[in-house]
Amino acid sequence: MSQIKEIASSIKALENDLSLCTRCGMCQSVCPLYTETGREPDSARGKLALLDGLRFSLLSKPDGVMDLLQRCLLCGACASHCPRKVNSISVFLRARMIIAGITGLNPFKKAILRAACNNPRVFDMILDTAGFFQKKLSADIAGTSDFSCIRDGFRSKQRISRNFAPKSFSEITGTVDYRRQGSKGRVAFYPGCLVNRMYPSIGTASLNAIIDCGYDVVIPDGLVCCGMPAAASGDMGSARIAAEKNAEILKKTDCDLIVTSCPTCGYAMKKLWSVFAEKSGHNDSFDYVSEKISDISDFIIRYGEKKYTAPGPDSGSDDRKTVTVHDPCHLKRSLGIYKEPRIILEMAGYKVREMKNSDRCCGMGGTFSISHYDLSMSVAEEKKKAVMDSGADVLAAACPACMMQIGGGLAADGSEIDVRHPVEIYAEKIPNVF
Ligand code: SF4
Ligand code: SF4
User: Fold this and answer.
1) Would you state the pLDDT for residue 159?
2) Per-residue pLDDT reduced to its tens digit, 77-104
3) Cα 79 to ligand 2 centroid, rounded to whole Å
4) Which end of the chain is flanked by fewer CB atoms within 10 Å, N or C?
5) Residue closest by Cα to atom 8 of ligand 1
6) Alpha-carbon Rg of the chain, whole angstroms?
7) pLDDT band for position 310 (cuts 50, 70, 90)
C-alpha cells in the first residue's frame, strides 16, 4: 500500500471527530497562533480541513501536513469555544502519531524521546550533557541567575533558556517514602521532568504541602516522563511506553491519591494515557491513575484542613503583597482548575490582582517553544504585557513550563517581577519537612 493510502486509511479512525467540524470559524477568534499569523492552517479549522484532505487522499505530501499540524500550542482554546465540541487536542495528537508512525521521525529526536519515556538514567545523562553545554555556550542575563541567553544555531539571534537547577529534585530529596502514625492516607507524588531538573523548589513545596495536609507521601522508583512531549512529536511508541510504565508503577503504590504540580503531566495522566496507549490492556491502571490524580492546589483545597478566611480578590485596601495569576491552558481548560490556585495564594496572605486575559496561552506549547521559538516568543508578548500592566509584585503560574516561558521573557526585558508556582508561595507559611 502506498504511504498516502496507508495514511488515508489510518486517518479514518478520526472521521467521527473530523466530520463534526462545520468550518464555522469560531475557533479562529480565540487561537493565539492564528491571531499572530492570520494563516488559515494555523487555526483548528485549517488543520481539520488538512486532515480531511489526507482522509480523502486529496493531498500528496503528508510531511507538509505534519509540519502544519506541529504549528499548534495544543492550548485547547479552539476546543473550548467550538459549538460542535470538536476535541481538537485529542484529534491533533492522534493525527500526529498516525502520520509520524507511517512517515517516520527524526532518529535523533526519537532517541531522546525514547530515553525520556523508557530509561530515566539515560535521559538524566542526556540532560546532564545539555546542562554542561548550556553553561559553556550561554551568556548571563543581567539581574537573573535563573535564565541565560544562548546562541540560536548559526543565526546571530539569541534564545532565552532556563538554567538547569544546580541539584535536581531527586538529588535533593533522595528516596521519598514519608510515613507517620495517624496520617489521613498515602499520596504518590509525580514530579515530572521540569520540576525535577528546572524547578526542584516546586517539588519540595508540594511534598511539604501534602504532609501539612495530613498525608504520607511516596515517590515510587522508576517513574519516567509523562509521555506528552513524545505524543506531541508524533512518537506513539514512546508515549505508549511512558503511559504504561508510569501507570503500572503508580498502581503498585496502592496509594489513596496521586498528586502532581505540573498540569500538563496531570492532564496526560487524567485524560490522555488511554489515548497514547489505545487497546494496550493497561486500562485498569490508566483508570486507577485517572481517578486518583489531583493537581496540588486542588488537593490542598479538597483534602487540607486549613480553611480560606482571607478577604476576597481585590476587596478593600490592605498592605498584602500583590500577586497576579496566569491560568495555564492544561490546568484551566483541560482540568477545569482555576479558582484553587487563587485560593491558596490568598490563604498564604497574598492579594490577588487579576491581569487581562489570564487564561490566554503564554506561547510555550511544550516542544513548540523549541521548534518554533520566534513564534512562541511573539505569542508571549501579550502575556508579558498583561503581567506588567497588572502592577502586581509577583506572577503565580501553576505550571513549570509556563513559568519558564513567561519568566524568561520578563527576565530578558529586565523586569523584576518574581515568577513563582502557587504552591511555592503557599509553602512559605507551613512547616518544611523537605
Ligand atoms: S469552531 Fe469547531 S466547528 Fe467551528 S471551525 Fe472551529 S473546529 Fe470547526
Ligand atoms: S490548540 Fe490552541 S494553538 Fe492549536 S489550533 Fe487550537 S487554539 Fe490554535
Assistant:
1) 82
2) 999 999 999 999 999 999 999 999 999 9
3) 8
4) N
5) 21
6) 21
7) low
